[in-house]
């Protein structure tokens, strides 16, 4: 019997899942990852912790399934996107910690770029949006890589000499799994670097020049299924082809079987990301949403419109670890129910690492407002949970303005096991919210790609048939209460934006 191993290297943990040829989960293993915060707005991870955690969960999942590496037909990889690594091409040693996607150290460079002119009088911002579908923000890999090249002693000289490799987490893992034989990435991850032209599907010479990135650093860009290399036998006991790779949000889109234009999903993990399949058409957003590669198969690219929220589950983690209001994330649902979903006028804007779409304010800071002597612990926790819905509403409003309305939203990620949160989402968004049987759709998407890349399945049809609904949540909140809540959160957002140094954006 054939089996697939899917490896999911996320922001807060690494996970491995073993699936059989029908997509049935056989075993899984998970291990947390510890970030560090060396300065305000800086977020880093230890590259060797990332690598060792992937080996650990992969081996544990095999043991749990009672399998050997030789039983695996292929490996699929999905990963936290935009996180940037720079390593020695000869021995794999990183020159610095992994700079995580949440990191904001590139904000000053972004401010300078926002004012810059480039070719034929066009602004750098216009060129970036046209070629990459992205906007100027320190979220993406480009300014992270620039910082590494300009700050780490000798890095730029070594890069120009061809001695270094740049990559997102997928590329870093593939390099190590293949013992340095393959320096590759996939089109979805490449599209998040801000160095990749999503129209030509090539690294952009213009943007490499803008960000002063030597082309010798760059990985080869492949389709989402194909020959990424072979994992060396020393890691899992056999030579195993790596045959499917995608960034985490694109993998979740695949795991949610959103294969037709107009289908949408929202993933609630460390951050929250709403993505709508737009087919072969590159979406043009007037609302500062992102155009991105959803997946590329057989050289044919499918695109998506995306809204990115930087803090979702990370806010719950902060409640647990920093405020000590909860001991476990599962307590949030009980708190929501005890408060009957009423925050008592408390609103939270969890801009712990700035605001993402549609505001794009890296200098924004979080806010808890509306506190009184009557406010209690459950109401504050409820306000944090409700902030996930308010942030999602901002994205769906933007998608409506971009003529890409969401009529049904498939949700996934660890947070959506919370029924109260899912019902609040449906009430606030005024659309049906569908939760699948398997909420870990990111890792499932990696498994689907590996099954296709290894020849176990022919196309996405099998994945679409395997998708199963667990529960549909339909709107039921009174419109007057909904309006009061929306107005309260909008006022809180205005407070945050007024406190930042940039003028408020109409989007």
Q: Compute the separation of the termini in Å.
A: 52 Å
Mean pLDDT: 91
Helix content: 25-40%
Order of strands, widest sheet: 18-19-17-16-22-23-24
Counting helices, strands and paired strands, the structural category is alpha+beta
Parts with pLDDT < 50 across at least 5 consecutive residues: 503-507
The number of helices is: 17
Biggest sheet record: 7 strands, mixed
Please compute the radius of gyration using only Cα atoms. 22 Å
The gross shape turns out to be globular
E-strand count: 24
Strand content: 15-25%
Task: Report what the structure shows.
With 507 residues, this protein is α+β, with helices and mostly antiparallel strands. Helices cover 35% and strands 24% of the residues. The strands form seven sheets. The chain has a seven-stranded mixed beta sheet, with helices on both faces. Strands 3-2-1-6-15-14 form a six-stranded mixed beta sheet, sandwiched between helices. The chain has 17 helices and 24 strands. Helix 12 (331-338) packs across helix 13.
What's this entry about, in short?
The protein has 507 residues and is of the alpha+beta class. It has 17 helices and 24 strands. α10 (248-255) packs across α15 (441-453) and α12 crosses α13.
Layout: helices, strands, pairs:
Elements: E1 3-9, E2 13-20, E3 25-32, E4 35-36, E5 44-45, H1 47-65, E6 72-79, E7 85-88, E8 98-99, H2 107-114, H3 124-132, H4 141-151, H5 155-160, E9 164-167, H6 169-177, E10 184-186, H7 187-190, E11 196-197, E12 202-203, H8 205-210, E13 220-222, E14 225-231, H9 233-236, E15 240-247, H10 248-255, E16 264-268, E17 272-279, E18 290-297, E19 300-309, H11 313-321, H12 331-338, E20 347-349, E21 367-369, H13 377-401, E22 409-412, H14 419-429, E23 433-436, H15 441-453, H16 461-466, E24 469-473, H17 479-499
Parallel strand pairs: 1-6, 6-15, 10-13, 16-22, 22-23
Antiparallel strand pairs: 1-2, 2-3, 4-5, 5-8, 7-9, 11-12, 14-15, 16-17, 17-19, 18-19, 20-21, 23-24
Helix pairs in contact: 10-15, 12-13, 13-14
């Amino acid at each position: 019997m054939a089996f697939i191993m899917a490896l999911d290297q996320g922001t807060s943990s690494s996970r491995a899942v073993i699936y059989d040829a029908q997509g049935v989960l056989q075993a899984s293993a998970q291990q947390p990852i510890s970030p560090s915060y060396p300065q305000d707005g800086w977020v880093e991870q230890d590259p060797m912790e990332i690598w060792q955690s992937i080996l650990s969960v992969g081996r544990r999942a095999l043991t749990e399934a009672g399998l050997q590496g030789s039983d695996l037909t292929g490996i699929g990889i999905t990963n936290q996107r935009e996180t940037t690594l720079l390593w020695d091409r000869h021995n794999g040693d990183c020159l610095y910690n992994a700079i995580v996607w949440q990191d904001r150290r590139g904000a000053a460079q972004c401010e300078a770029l926002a004012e810059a002119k480039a070719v034929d009088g066009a602004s750098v911002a216009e060129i970036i949006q046209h070629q990459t579908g992205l906007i100027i923000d320190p979220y993406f890999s480009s300014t992270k890589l620039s910082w590494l090249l300009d700050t780490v002693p000798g890095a730029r000289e070594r890069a120009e000499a061809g001695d270094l490799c740049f990559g997102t987490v997928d590329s870093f893992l593939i390099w190590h799994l293949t013992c340095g034989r393959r320096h590759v990435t996939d089109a979805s991850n490449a599209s998040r670097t801000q160095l990749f032209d999503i129209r030509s599907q090539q690294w952009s010479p213009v943007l490499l020049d803008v960000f002063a990135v030597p082309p010798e650093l760059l990985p080869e860009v492949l389709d989402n299924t194909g020959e990424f290399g072979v994992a060396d036998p020393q890691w899992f006991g056999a030579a195993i082809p790596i045959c499917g790779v995608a960034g985490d949000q694109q993998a979740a889109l695949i795991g949610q079987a959103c294969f037709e234009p107009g289908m949408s999903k929202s993933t609630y993990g460390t951050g929250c990301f709403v993505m709508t399949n737009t087919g072969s058409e590159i979406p043009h957003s007037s609302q500062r949403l992102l155009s991105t590669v959803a997946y590329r198969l057989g050289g044919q690219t499918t695109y998506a419109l995306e809204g990115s929220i930087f803090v979702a589950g990370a806010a719950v983690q902060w409640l647990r670890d920093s405020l000590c209001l909860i001991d476990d994330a599962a307590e949030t649902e009980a708190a929501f129910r005890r408060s009957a979903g009423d925050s008592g006028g408390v609103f939270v804007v969890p801009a712990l690492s700035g605001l993402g779409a549609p505001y794009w304010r890296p200098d924004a800071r979080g806010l808890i407002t509306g506190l009184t002597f009557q406010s209690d612990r459950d109401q504050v926790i409820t306000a944090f949970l409700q902030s996930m819905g308010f942030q999602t509403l901002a994205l769906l409003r933007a998608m409506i303005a971009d003529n890409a309305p969401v009529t049904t939203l498939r949700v996934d990620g660890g947070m959506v096991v919370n029924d109260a949160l899912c019902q609040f989402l449906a009430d606030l968004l005024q659309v049906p919210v569908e939760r699948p049987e398997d909420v870990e759709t990111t890792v499932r998407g990696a498994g689907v790609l590996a099954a296709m890349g290894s020849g176990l399945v022919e196309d996405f049809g099998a994945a679409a048939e395997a998708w199963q609904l667990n529960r549909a949540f339909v709107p039921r909140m009174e419109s007057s209460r909904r309006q009061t809540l929306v107005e309260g959160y909008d006022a809180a957002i205005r407070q945050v934006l007024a406190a930042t140094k940039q003028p408020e954006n109409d989007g």
